[in-house]
Amino acid sequence: MRTGFPIALPGQTIGLLGGSFDPAHAGHVLISKVALRRLGLDRVWWLVSPGNPLKTRGPSPIQQRIRTARQLTHDPRIIITDIEARLGLRKTADTLQALVLHYPGVRFVWLMGSDNLVQFHHWDRWRQIAQTVPMAVMARPGSRLAARRSVAARVLQSHQFPEFRAAQIARAQAPAWAFLNLPMSGLSSTAIRRKDAS
Fold first, then answer.
1. For residues 65 and 59, what is the distance between their CA atoms, to the nearest angstrom?
2. CA distance 89 to 145
3. How many structural domains compose the chain?
4. Do residues 179 and 147 lie in contact, with contact meaning Cβ atoms separated by under 8 Å?
5. What is the tens place of the pLDDT at every residue in 76-91?
6. Which residue range is the domain that position 163 belongs to?
7. How much is the average pLDDT of 34-46?
8. Is residue 4, in this structure, part of any structural domain at all?
9. Neighbours of 68 (CB within 10 A)
10. For 101-125, how does the pLDDT look when each residue is reduced to its tens digit (9 = 90+)?
């Protein structure tokens, strides 16, 4: 494995939480800890993105965002990584393909908030993403109902695991996904940036 890349061994299950993390906050930690516990994951990797193609405003410098994320999380199972920047990638479909290639035998699960599932069908090659790795959708305030009625949820309905079987998706063949209810955190990076600006 290349220098600077996270370590993962065949047979391990790794949750992938992508985003700009601008800034990282307690909601990201909550999602990660729930995923570790409820999905039986060995690790969660925070994929600190060079930039989100769906956002018009560019993020803060990546090293600053990584530093802030590392200061926030103290669980050794949560790994902060700039692997997308190291690979020269910005789109989730490309990142997942590269990770599956670079880590043979490792089982990845894509983690996303229910707010992201609402607009998932606008992501580049979203169907390919769903076919590449299983997904866990984490409930977020104000988007649970919209997520359940979203285009992607309807298209992928036959591949949804009931919540009580969510721990099985880490070892399931994609497409497979589960919706996880969890304690609500109203924190968002956008709200934190607005507060800091004012």
1. 9
2. 32
3. 1
4. yes
5. 999 999 999 999 998 9
6. 13-197
7. 97
8. no
9. 17
10. 999 999 999 999 999 999 999 999 9
